[in-house]
Each structure stands twice: as structure tokens, then as C-alpha cells.
Specification:
- The structure is a homotetramer of 311-residue chains.
- Chain A is of the alpha/beta class and 311 residues long.
- Chain A contains ten helices and 17 strands.
- In chain A, a hairpin with a 3-residue loop joins β5 (121-122) and β6.
- The B-C interface holds B 83-87, 89, 91, 94-97 and C 83-87, 89, 91, 94, 96-97.
């Protein structure tokens, strides 16, 4: 086990030219029409929804979101602002207001497809300079996902497949890790699924303190290819892009760049996975119905969500 | 039909003492324990969720939310603020921020149970002065609903049951309207259901311009009693409290006050019902799975949501 | 010196009845007309401005504000939010947005006269329930001070007059302290002056860490009376209300309550006094021109300001 | 008079190459040291402040700011957000919060020198890509102006000099207009002065409705040169850049670009000039003391201010 873990720990990054080739290979531009703004959500068909609903067998529901984080810290420089508002001198109710920075670490959120570019390239052949305006995104914005996500969720416990409590910050998740997790859990990721990749981050943070944002486990390029071949609709996990990485601005966040700008693969950032791992163990199941419903933000680059797993 | 409609148009409000009696009669304080913060969400059992999932037969999903409204108007004095934020001189992605006033008319939202009081009375025997602090609600806040709502939704088309396009602003929805809608639609509201009461408001606004907030169709006290007896988990609709009404501060928003503070009945405000009415007609069904997942706002008085109906 | 200091350290609070009497004695209601919203700014006459301008003898200008504090801490729970905003993909300039909680410790600010009440009493015989609305203050709001403050400023160094580096948190500033500071500095506070009371807080914080907000030096009731008799226009200082104090809600912040609600005395909170103390020493002068210009906030309860001293 | 006005109405824009030459000619880079962040505020010497203070002869003070504009409109898409905040169930005071977009038309504000670039060029030889970061400006930000502006103000009534009520939107302010205004008013702009250029905009808006932002009177290039030769410290006026103009992104706002990025000339946007014109007439004076004190915003691109004229 240790040897295997050690072997993985040394991640290797392909040259930027390989990423360029991968970007082209995985590019879904035109796949669902020149005006498609849904990307991999197209994999979630009506049949897929019906099948996902049938996964509800115990009726247990579980939130996969973190509490909105109002506490400023090095990992949360722009915390959520929650303000109780005045109604009347003798109030008959309480009202409040929220200010949310959509990305970062303060909240569980979905990315709009046009949130990240590769250079000037945005999903489906669009140019960032045309799409990202001061008034909001004009294409593949958050509103495109307004009817929500309702599909099969699959937890992939990479840490367990590796036989470790958690992956160290210099590690990466490879295609073979995803295969190994499937095998160990006797589950298979299918077209339209939303996967939840777990590397034990919260356990590591409990033991070792908050993650250093410059030193992070990441999804490796071959794993992105795996996701493409499996036709997943949504990626979520406690790791995203690896840091540090050798790439310039074009691929500084290479997974985001390829997933969003080439594949139109929806990303769900900052989920709370520990409770899911626990419930999955308790029920002896890795798959479940998962629902997410982004706010209808015209022009929005992302949305806070509270994804709910129902077993 | 016309005669019946005319008869209803003249709504009559019982004296405040009757509301006091109703408040006591419908009071669920202690029903699910002295520390319960879920109120009528307790009606949504694991079995209820399983049964609700089985309503997914066509796989059609539909958002029941309105777009976040960023346009200021007399009916939207505190619009949503959407700001594109600066990333870098040569950006590789777009980020943004939202500021949301939780209540009002700018967004579809769930109420926390402690959002409204009857005088100083909050759900489950609590006192507003103890619960509503400058830092947020300390009981029955939005976070209490963190695992979301997953239940059977039932559309009740009051306008159709009355045989009118829409109810006029001086009208009210009575228990017999709810009965009539059930009868016409051959559906029965059951324990744990979320009901969507439709009076044709959007059609009226399309024809006659924005609603005058001081002149509004409302849920009448006998209809609240009906909801209690049917054990609904969530009320939603295009009408809530009737205005004008004869009550002082204690019952100025009498439906909110009795629903939230006595019953712990969850309210979903400002839904978009026209598309639901249309889809319901198209599919010939009044019931469906409905999911809602409020943001995990500790101390919050409400949450923006995008409720999704799946047929 | 020590003995004297020790004697002062034990501050004694008069009973609430004495404060009631003081409130009545110092009440300026009606003094400048029943509709006056300027309070003690009435002491700043055109002649006073001319005289104040003549204090500009060296042309040295100094800010008396602190930097807007964007860092969250126990003493700054609602920090200023500063956001760089998006302009264009290839920007030709930088723009930003600020969110400011007016009171608290994040910024140097002026209080509107109606900011604080004594029970339901607001300046000039008004009632809080009539004035403090959800849309803003309808009387003695920030806008009332729109033409700014332009008057003589006088630094009163209480710490130096006591012969200590700083006053300890259990201490209070009495009328005799103000007299002693005047005597030591050979300066006399006159009608219309803005006083800056210095007790060495920043030095204490540098040595002992951030102030405990529950343990604070305060202005004692006899000092409020002194301010009334001297007809000062504005009070500023590194101490305001003493904490802990024995009073209930009515006088929980007794200095604010009497100054604002009875006297209409303008308060400038959270000034930066150390640089003023230094420059005052360097130039051998305790008086100077001071200017402040609050933002024109209709209904506002306060305004961020950057007071400028010119010697 | 009419003929003269007609002649001016046809403004002519020099080619972009001329602006490049002007940018170089007026460039103050290095003039006050390589690290200077004050730009033309360097013209305000201690002697200048003393002289400015001596202009206070009547003691009349007047705000030159507009009220913060909380009403959304085509000319104010991001209005100021003013929120009354909850303090307690039985409050003893009122508190509030403000959200301000610094630029645009919602508020009278000062520009930081690094607010606008010419291509990538920022004042004093800096590059925008190095200075304009997501966390704020790192050079020539708002904080640089922390000690405020205290100088002689001079009103230049261009409309009166032209003998018209207001300039039409296709007009421009030329150097000879400034000369003519000086001559008519018997005043001379001197080193360190802050000028207020009045073209009658508010009168025009009262008569003809809100200004079309795409059709605006502007400062012509020869007038910028005039300002440089007169060594003004601050420009303010009811016109800034002319629209439409023939320039690309580099000079889309050519006056801002040359003033800020070349000269380091401070700009005060959106002043309220009508009351100044009236008071100036009443007192028969065109010059006065003017004070402005921007908020101490580290990294800020601008600041709301309430400039005060004292005669």
C-alpha cells in the first residue's frame, strides 16, 4: 500500500502542448449545436432523471453543502456578509441580506460554463472578449442551468482506494485512481452521472490545519480524459486543480480551463463530502439521487447551491 | 359561475379574537418536541420522500423560480445587486458577487420559521426578543432546513376552479376553493405535500400591469385551517396575505403570523407558477416531485431557492 | 501624580435618576427652533468659521481618520468590504465598490443626531418610532449636516494632564480633567469648538493589545455638563461611553444618549489621534482649523469622514 | 453672441497622434520624483493653503456634492444601496450600511490617479498590469490623497462667457473659453487652484431631461494643455470627456487618460455646481476656499467626497 501511495505521490505534469492537444480532443464545441449553453448537462436525459429518481430507496436526504462562511481567514478573504435589516421600531418579523462572492472558498457553488477561459477561448467556440462583459456573461451564464441538475450521483473514494486516510498535497488523482475506486466500490460511472471525488481533505485539515492554497492535490490530465469518455455531467470533489503546476496563465487552472472551456463540463466547487462518505458507508451504497438548483442569475458566473443527496 | 365568483369577491375578515383562537387551535408548539425547528417539514418522512420520487415518470424538470430581479421598481425597491468583479488585468475567467435582500419581491425564497412573529411569539413557544438578534436568528433559522425539501408537490388552480382567468385583488382564497380545486383536478392533498396555489396573478399583471401591493388577493383564515388539517409541509402560491385587512401589527400579515409562528408551516414566496400551470395541463397531472434546497445560512431569516418540479 | 491618578481610576456612576435630571438640564430641544436638525452645529456661526480659518498659519494639513479597516477581528466584526469591479476584458481603468457599516470600529465616522435615542426620545422632542423607519431617518439624519463642519479644533490631552501614558480601562474623564488639560495646554475651549479628547488609547493598545470593548474608559456625566456649558459643537476622542456601567437600555450608552438625544451634540467616532498629538507637540499648538464633510446620505444614521486638521 | 456660439458648437477632434504628442508633452512623470503618487496635488504648497484660508471672508459654507443617488435609472444603473440595519428587538439607536460603486453617476467622487490608464500606461511611468490588482491599486491609489485637498477654488462659468444658458451636447470647452471666462469674471487661475467648469448642464437637464451619456459636452485637448500650463491641482466640472469622439480604447476617455495617466491631475467627478453659481453671483466672487477629504481607502480607485466651498 505504502509503495503504491509513494509512487502516486510524485505527480508529473505533461507539457503545455499536450494540454493543447487534450483541449482539442475533448472539445465538445458543436456537439449539441452551435448555440448550446448546457454542455455536459445534455447527458442528463429524461430517461436519466427517471432512473436517478429510482435510486431513492430509503428516503434519507443529506445536504452536501458547507455553511456559508462569514469568517474571514487566509483561505476566505472575502467572507459572506450576512446583515440583519431594520424593519420597524417594533418589528413583527426579522429580515436580512446576504452578500456573496461567488467563487473562492466561502460557499458551495456551481460554475457557469463561461466562468473560465483558455486564453480567450470560451465553450462552444465563443471568445471571452465577446462574452464576459461588465454587465455579466452573455453566453453560457448561470441562467442556462436554470432547470437544475437531477441525476445519479456517485461517490468515488480515492483515499480508500489508495488505502490512505488522505492524499498529501503533492499528489494527484489519475484515471487509474478513478478505475480503482470504481472497482473497490463495485460501482460504475455512467453517462450523465455526477461524480464526487473524495481524497480525504477535510480529515487532513482536521489533523493538519487549513489547506495551503498553493499546495493542493489536483485532478491530473488523464483523469479529465476519463471523465470525458465516461460522459459525466458534473464533477465535484475535494480537489480540483493541482498546485503548484508548471503552466502559465493559459492553463494556470488547467482542469477548470479544459472542463469548462472545452468540454462544457459543469463543476460543483467546495462540497462537503465527509457526511456523504459516512452515510455511504452506513448504507453500503455509492450511488444516489443528487439534486442541485442554481439561482436564476442572468449573466451570472456561478451560483451558491445546496446539493442534496437522497438515498 | 359568475354569480359564484361575485359571491366570493367580497371577502370578510373575522375579528382579531377569532385569529387569536385560530392561532391557539393550529399551534404546533411541542408537537414535535420542545426544541423542534422543522415545523411542518416533520410531515415529510422517509416514506414520503420515497413516494415522492416515484412521481418522476416522464423525467421532465421545470424551474419554479423567477429570475433574480435586478431592476428597481415600486414593487422591487431593493433589487438584487449583481457585480462583475475584477480578477486581473488579463483575466482568465469571470467572477461576480451578489447582494440579496431576502424578503420582498426580488427573488423566489423560502422563509425561515422564525422569520415572522405574532406579537412577540415565535414558533414553538419562543420569544422574538430572545431569538431575533443583530447577529441572526438563534432558533428556527434557515439553517434548520439545511437538508432541503423533497416531497410531493400539488398544484391547486383556484382560478380554473372558479372559472375565471384570475381573481381580482379584493378576493380571497377560502377552504372551499381548495376543496373545489381538488375536486376539479381529481387530486387530493395529503400529509407532507407542498401545495402551489394559483390565482392567475401573472396573467392579471400581464393584462393590467404590476400588482398594487396594498390591494392583494389573500389566503383567508378558514383556508389556513384547511392546510393544518391536511398537514401540508409547505405553502406556496401567487397570493399570501390579503391587503388591505383590518388587523393591527399583531396580525398585519396574519397568514405569515399563523403559518410561521403557530404552525411552523414553511412558506415559499414569489414562485413562478405560469410555467407549472402550462406543464401541468400538457401532462394532465397536478402532482409531481418538488425539490428545494435553501442555502445553509446560519441565523438566516430566509433563503433564495430555485424549486424544481420533476414530473 | 500616582496618587491623583489612583484617585481618578475609581470612577463612580451617579444613579439613573441623576442622568434623567441631566438629560433635562442639558436638553437643547427648542433652543434653535422646533424643527432644528443641526443641534450644536448651530454654535458654528459665520464669524466662527472666519476665526477658524485664521488659525491656518503654517499650512500643515493632517488627516485625523483611520484607514478603512477591511480586516475582520473581534473588534471589527463587520469590516469594510472593498471590491475591485470588472470593466472590460481589456480594461482602460480600474473601478471598485465599497460596503460600509456606518457605526462600529471599521471607520472614522460622524453620527447623525438621530442615531441614538434615550428610550424613545430623539433630539428636539421627536419620538424614535416616528423617525427611525426602514427607509432611513426622517429627521436629524446625516443629510442635515450636508454643509460640513468648519471650525476650531482643540486637542485636550487628558493623559498628559494626568501625567500618565494612558488611562486604564476602569478610568473616566471628568470635568476637572478637561479643566486640567486646558490649564496645562494654556488653551480655552470656546463656543463652537470641536474638541478631541485624548486618553492615550492607541499607545495602550500598542503596548497591551486591542481594547476589550467591555472595559473602556469613558466620558463621565460631569464632563458632559462641562461640554454643554462650553457650547462645544462636536465631541471627538479616543473614549466615548464607559464600560461596564450600571445602566439599563435607557442609558446603556449614556454619553451618546445625552449628547445626541438631549443636546444634539455631534459625535465624531474612531478618530486617529496619535498623529495629532505628535503634530501638536511639534508645532507647540493645541488649536487648529478642523474640517469634516459627511457624505450626503438622505436618511443616513452616520457618515464616514476624513477630518482634516490644518495648522 | 449667437455666431460665436455656433462657431464653437462644431468641435473638432485632433488625430490620435496629436493626443500621443500631447500625452508626452504634458507628462509629469518624474517631475516630483519617481515614487510620487500625488501628481498635481504637489502644486498645493503650505503657502497655498495659507493663502486659500485667507479667502474665508464671509464664513458662508456650501456643499458642492449631490445627494447619494439610490434611485436606479439609465444614467444610474448601479445606485447607492442604503440599508437600515437591525440592532435589537427594542433598539436604542439606528444604524445603517452603504454600498457604493465609486465611479459612474451615483455620487460626487474623487478619482485616484491610477484610476484610468492610457493603454497600459499609468501615472509616473507605471504599468497597469503591475498596479491594478484584484486586491486594489498598489500605486497612486486613493489613500495617497489621505491628507485631503485644501486650496483655492475658482468657478469658471463657460455658459455665461459664451452668453448662453447652456452648451449643447455637441459642443466642447476650449482653452479660449477658459480665457474668456477668466476675463469676464476678472479672476485668474493660479498654480494649485482647483477649477470648477460650468457649462449649464443641470439647467439643460431641467429643461430637456437627463443627459444622453453618449452625447456629451467635453473638455477639448487644447483646454487640457491650458490646465497644464496653469498648474491647476484639481479639475472639476459638469463636463469631462466629449462623446461621441473618434478615438479607440486608448483615448476613449481621452481627458481622463491624459489628466490622470500623464499629468497626475486629480479629477472631481459629478459635482453640484448650480448652488455654487448662485452663491458666486450673490457674493460677487469667483474664488473661495475649497476643501475635500477622500476616505482613506487603501488600494481604492476613487472616493465619495462632499467638497465644501467656504467664501
Amino acid at each position: 500500500m505504502k509503495a503504491s501511495s509513494a509512487k502516486k505521490a510524485k505527480r508529473e505534469f505533461p507539457p503545455e502542448a499536450t494540454l493543447d492537444a487534450l483541449f482539442d480532443e475533448l472539445n465538445n464545441a458543436g456537439r449539441w449545436g452551435r448555440d448550446d449553453e448546457l454542455g455536459t448537462l445534455n447527458y442528463i436525459t429524461a430517461q436519466k432523471r427517471i432512473a436517478a429518481a429510482s435510486l431513492v430507496r430509503t428516503g434519507r436526504a443529506l445536504s452536501l453543502a458547507r455553511d456559508l462562511n462569514t469568517l474571514q481567514s487566509p483561505n476566505n478573504p472575502s467572507p459572506v456578509r450576512h446583515t440583519m435589516c431594520y424593519q420597524a421600531h417594533y418589528p413583527i418579523g426579522a429580515v436580512d441580506a446576504l452578500t456573496l462572492d461567488m467563487h473562492g472558498f466561502a460557499l458551495t457553488h456551481l460554475d457557469a460554463i463561461a466562468h473560465v477561459y483558455r486564453g480567450d477561448d470560451i465553450y462552444n467556440g465563443r471568445r471571452a472578449a465577446d462574452i464576459a462583459l461588465a454587465t455579466g456573461l452573455t453566453f453560457a451564464d448561470m441562467l442556462a442551468q436554470k432547470d437544475g441538475i437531477f441525476t445519479r450521483g456517485v461517490l468515488l473514494d480515492i483515499a480508500a482506494a489508495r488505502g490512505v486516510k488522505w492524499l498529501t498535497p503533492d499528489d494527484g488523482v489519475h484515471a487509474e485512481d478513478l478505475d480503482a475506486a470504481e472497482k473497490r466500490q463495485r460501482v460504475r460511472v455512467e453517462s450523465g452521472d455526477c461524480i464526487f471525488v473524495y481524497t480525504g481533505l477535510q480529515k487532513r485539515e482536521s489533523a493538519e490545519g487549513p489547506e495551503n492554497l498553493g499546495q493542493r492535490v489536483g485532478i491530473m490530465p488523464d483523469a479529465i480524459k476519463w471523465m470525458h469518455s465516461r460522459e459525466i455531467s458534473v464533477y465535484s470533489g475535494d480537489c480540483v486543480d493541482a498546485f503548484p503546476n508548471p503552466y502559465g496563465a493559459r492553463y494556470a487552472i488547467y482542469f477548470h480551463a479544459i472542463a469548462l472551456a472545452a468540454m462544457g463540463l459543469i463543476l460543483l466547487d467546495i462540497p462537503a463530502l465527509e457526511p456523504l462518505v459516512e452515510l455511504s458507508k452506513e448504507l453500503g451504497r455509492s450511488d444516489f439521487l443528487v439534486t442541485m438548483a442554481p439561482l436564476r442569475i442572468k449573466g451570472g458566473t456561478g451560483s451558491p447551491v445546496n446539493p442534496i443527496a437522497v438515498f
